[in-house]
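Researcher: First entry.
Model:
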Amino acid sequence: MVHPDAEFREFLAEGRFMLQRQKGGAAFYPPRTIAPVTGSEDIEWFEPSGRGTVYSTTVVRRKPPEPSYNVCLVELAEGPRMMTRVEGIDPAEVRIGMPVVARVIDQDGQALVVFVPENAA
């Protein structure tokens, strides 16, 4: 059996952002072997819309010349929240309530989910 986190990383390596949900139920993140609340093992992967809203954000300021970056919690349209970052704008410009869209990127050989402002998508 492949661990759900490994499956999630495999999807990302293919350029696909996928989430899990209990069949006929709500989506959840991070990936798990059983559904939260119900404990059901009847789980499926699905491709979410990729849309979300910044729920919280902070700027990590690094010693120059390293660039600052943001760390944020994005609430996905499907319900779950995920820790990530918003790219494509100055980190200090990221705002709570900002609509964003998911992108799968390659960073140092590792596929990651990041978000960009909806108007930049």
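Researcher: Second entry.
Model:
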Amino acid sequence: MKAELAKKWLGKLTKLNAATGSGKCRGKAPHKPLLLLCLLDMAEAGELAGHTFTRTAGLVLRFKSYGALVSERWPTRLDMRMPFFYLRTQGFWQAFTMEMATAQSPESCFVCELHEEFFDLLADADFRLKARLLLVSRYFEPRERVALLASFGMIAPHPASGHLLPRAEKGYSLADAEMVGAKLNKEAEEAARKKGRSARFAVQVVSRYKFTCALTGLSCLTADGAAIVDAAHIEPFAENQNDDIDNGLALCKNAHWMFDEGLWAVRDDGRVILAPQRFTENGPEGLRLQPYAGRLLQFAASVTLRPNPKYFGQHQMFHQL
């Protein structure tokens, strides 16, 4: 029975009725498959607790990050409200207003209630894997496939050709991998892989630190799911292109800029140190850097992830602190 349901819903994923691009946009519109890939990602991360979902910060973050991987082919702004509303017509979910009345437009759609069968399948690792591979292979171009698979941590060199293909895991064969894999030259493969790893870094760092700035402790989310924080590299990315999650901090915009400029750093014990000779500042205490000298980094109460202290030392060496 479960196999039959999986086949039914995988079949639905092949018929997303994606619009065809025009002008600067080419190929099939990526909105619908991107949103479904985001939901699969959230299900894997344990962020889909029930049948209903909204435009949460985690969903918005993923949609923007993964959407950036298709920006060369689809340079116009991707509006998540469109697939959020229109995928209801293909049975994946029902769309409602904030008051739980039936939504009549993308602008009025705030809550989606997943179909019972689809919700149950999202909890199945084998279905998630097959659904990801199907969506990536069917709706995206070769470079995008490599980048998306890298963003999901699902890519490795082919054992024979060396080309980048989905990492061999239980649930799909080498033939499946070759179907999704992209025959690109090494330079193009590496560039696409780096884009994907950067997207993965942004999603994992910001979401796993619960959208909270490690310097100020500030978390600010808009009603549409936008967040005040970015994913910051501790060891500068220019040094070793290090996108390991333990080389990351979630920082608000000002704190991120000041950290990258070497105006502040972190000791091995997690306390903030400043380089006061490098800057002057004026303004309210809550916006100035000086009051944070000697304070511990701040993490949301439920967060267990921590940065690797060795990267703080490399950050200090880079900025000669």
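Model: Note on the second entry: Residues 165 and 181 are 5 Å apart (CA to CA).
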